[in-house]
Amino acid sequence: MINHPDDNTSSGQSGSGTVTFHNEEVPPTRALIVHLSVRDTAPGQAPSDQRSTEADLEEITGLALAIELEIVDTTIVMLRQVTPATYMGSGKVKEIKTQVNNNDIELVVTNTQLSPGQQRNLEKAWNCKVLDRTGLILEIFGRRAKTREGRLQVELAHLAYQRSRLVRSWTHLERQRGGGGFVGGPGETQKESDRRDLQSRIKKLEKQLEKVKKTRGLHRKSRQKVPYPVVALVGYTNAGKSTLFNYLTTGNVLAKDLLFATLDPTMRKLELPHGRKVILSDTVGFIANLPTQLVAAFRATLEEVLSADLIVHVRDIAHEDSEIQRTDVLQVLDDLGISENERNLMIEVWNKSDLLDETELLKRQNMAGRDRNNIVVSALTGEGIDNLLSVIEANLAKNDNILSLSLSLTRGADIAWIYQNGDVLERKDSKDGLTANISARFPPTRINVAKKLFENCIAS
Known about the structure:
The protein is of the alpha/beta class and 460 residues long. 38% of the residues lie in helices and 18% in strands.
């Protein structure tokens, strides 16, 4: 949770802006989920465009369970309009206060994003901590990120979020301190000091992240020299990407029925049916209304998607809001700068077919059959995986740069270069032992070099 500065027992964001983590067993926090739903009066919006209340409640509950909260109860609040001070009306605020008191609630989680003022007012009214959707997602990311880059990105996002919430009901923020050689000078409030300290920490983190990004850039350049295309798995959180990744690569990525189980990119080599090798990348799951702080902070992590040769969009086809989740993922891709034209090299994997009954499964298979790039699979049972691998191979072949070369076997260094920089599909040496006839595929970054190097050896 995001703590008050004088709170030393909970994990998360401390007042100094440092992310801390649990090292000892503590009782789970007793939490109440409050689902706030405003009746949509926007003209021309069809009901099918809206996420169902049940699915939305299930998602926010899943997010809360991802940080091991004890969900004591859930409540749905239907609103005609948003109240500026507390989001909901005073009657509902009092009703929930009674619920908080009667159930010893320590934390109230809302499915919407609250303004700093709304969060502060609700905390005062209920006398407990309040965590909105953005804060909850940030907390999950703080617990899941393992790499140095991931931790830096999480802390940066936390600080950006906390900077706007220095108006929270923290009594120490109202204190004034006298001058004593401090930069702020006499009479500077603790809130002003904290804000300045946060800004200083943010600048320091941004510099550290720039160094990490440069390192990742060097790693990416080195991978580009390897003749293996990158296939990136993307999709809504909990769609089954990591389960699919593990099935294909026998990797050891955390794969649970848990939202945001994967936060750091994982890459493994995968061999396709006809021997072609690719690099498969597992990425963080997307989610509706992803906090803007995280879209920016995790852009470097998602650069594997930007540079991928093929994007595999994994969908939970058994979920009632599967189509809406699809729209959410495409929106995030747009936010990342992957245009609709660039998404031509993307296939959809309709996962979790094992959760469908026979009638629904047949329906989905018929729907998928209309487009070669829609594949129905179960990453749990392996159903449809062979078809998926064939479709991946076929899509990658669209951009093949294949050269048929005939060169003397005395050119050992050149032949070695072909093996190092290309994917040798076939080789036949002449019976007299003088000539090597090689068919090789080269990545876009090496094809022009290969053509120039072997311009006199290309077979017609």
